[in-house]
Amino acid sequence: MAERTARSPSLLLRLLVGAGLALLIALAAVGAAMDRVFTNAAEANMRERLEAVVYLILSTIEVDADGQPRLSDSLAEPRLNRPGSSLHGGAMTPEGEWRSPSLMGVEPQPNARLIERNAELFRGLEADGSWNVFAIGLGWEMPGGDIIDLTIWAAEDPNRLRMELAGFRGDLWRWLGLAAVLVIIGQVVLLLLILRPLRRVAHEVSEIESGRRAGIEGRYPRELRPLTDNLNTLLAAERDNARRYSEALADLAHALKTPVAVLRARLESSEPARPSDLARHLDDMEQIIRRQLERAQRSTRRALPAAVPVRPILERMAESLERLHVDSKLRAEVSGGADRVAHMDERDLWEVCGNLMENAAKYGNGRLRASVRAGEPGRRRDGVIIEIEDNGPGIAAAEAERLFQRGQRGDERRDGQGLGLSIVRELVEANGGRLELERSELGGANFRVILPPR
Q1: What helix, strand, coil percent values describe the chain, rounded to 5?
Q2: What pLDDT is recorded for position 270?
Q3: 343 and 302 in contact (C-beta within 8 Å)?
Q4: Pairwise CA distance, residues 245 & 166, whole Å
Q5: Is residue 392 within 8 Å of 363, Cβ to Cβ?
Q6: Residue 424 contacts residue 351 (beta carbons within 8 Å)
Q7: Residue 298: pLDDT above 70?
């Protein structure tokens, strides 16, 4: 029974859920902060209104000889005279109390009491009770010179402030909800535009899988360029390795054609085949197979090779060549930063450096100089330049291209098959670089390996 893989949520859905949660949290925090600010402002405004009423009452109050507070029938605040209004006031002394006509028929009435002189009392939204109250305590001087306590207060129906807050909160959350809807719509549109290059990449990859496209060709944002470039590198390496394996198999079939024909002829001949002859033919075929397999293995390339330090390879090659050419007193110099690395297969780097340094030791006059330095800068990594110089007779510019061909040697009197420079050039170009030949400051040849940046 085939296992069903659970479908993972899309990137768009994840971004929308994350952005939506962040938006809801942000709007809730903004709404709570605005609600708190408005509540504090409304409560402060209510206090100012009640305080103004208290001082209005204070400006018109009189206390008679019996200590009873008296006010004129016509007050400056009309709501104090209108029964059932939401605004009330009063004044009280130890001897008596006055309450505004607006309290007529109102139940329950404010529970007024005397407070200390020079003290204030305020009951807002968070206070217990059904009234919002502001009161001040004063001392009133009587005609005889005595000072009695006087408390003036003003009260307001809390439903007025509650309705004001409810109206504000309704408008606030409606506008915040509308803003959230608009922001979410904008986020959806923005995310669709942002994720459009990813959908294009997925579409091109599907076309590559179906064989309708050879690689990713579209222009993509800078953040996606490493992905598209590496995918193209992997595809190019896969095609190159497939081509090399195909060529290796063709070479193997071609190489085995003659031994197989000879072996078949010996077996089909009337004369009996000797076991030694058959064993020799089999040994030849085995060597051919082993050689072709090794060649195929060496020809494969990694699409994204690891970073290989260059200087340690140059130093080890220099030590080996000095021991090998001890008779000619070879001096091999190595320079360059130890942190310089080449992004290519380590076997390829050994073969490149080994062939060039061996040629420099063979055709030079006892001096060899190898160096590594940074090349052209890149966004992800810089290029690398490796130079191998000698103090030999040098190579003419007209001879350079011929020496890079397979089977060509600079000195026919020396041993060799003329494959070193062609192999070096093939390996360097397979890794995206190039091989140059110039005149060395030492007087001989200067082979420069230039590996590109990324």
Answers
A1: 50, 15, 30
A2: 59
A3: no
A4: 79
A5: yes
A6: yes
A7: no
Residue 279 CA to residue 436 CA, distance in Å, equals: 47
Sign of CA dihedral 338, 340, 343, 345: negative
> Look-up: residue for tokens 């090779």?
305
Judge contact between 454 and 379, C-beta under 8 A: yes
Phi and psi angles of residue 212, each rounded to the nearest 5 degrees, phi first: -85, -5
* Greatest Cα-to-Cα distance within the chain, rounded to the nearest angstrom: 161
- Residue 110 to residue 113: CA distance in whole angstroms: 9
Candidates 260, 385, 254, 371; CA nearest to 318 is 371
Crossing angle (nearest 10°) for helices 158-209 and 225-268: 30
Q: Check: CB of residue 89 under 8 Å from CB of residue 154.
A: yes
**Alpha carbon distances (Å) from 249 to 41, 133, 194, 244, 264:** 87, 101, 47, 9, 21
pLDDT band of residue 294 (cuts 50, 70, 90) is low
- How far apart CA 436 and CA 447 sit, in angstroms, is 6
Nearest 5°: phi and psi at 98?
Answer: -125, 135
216 pLDDT exceeds 50? yes
C-alpha closest to that of 246 among 291, 296, 288, 211: 296
Helices and strands of the chain, counted as H and E runs: 9, 14
d(CA 83, CA 364): 120
SS3 77: coil
The CA distance from 395 to 86, in Å, is 110
pLDDT at 34 over 90: yes
> Cβ contacts of residue 323 below 8 Å, gap of 6+?
none
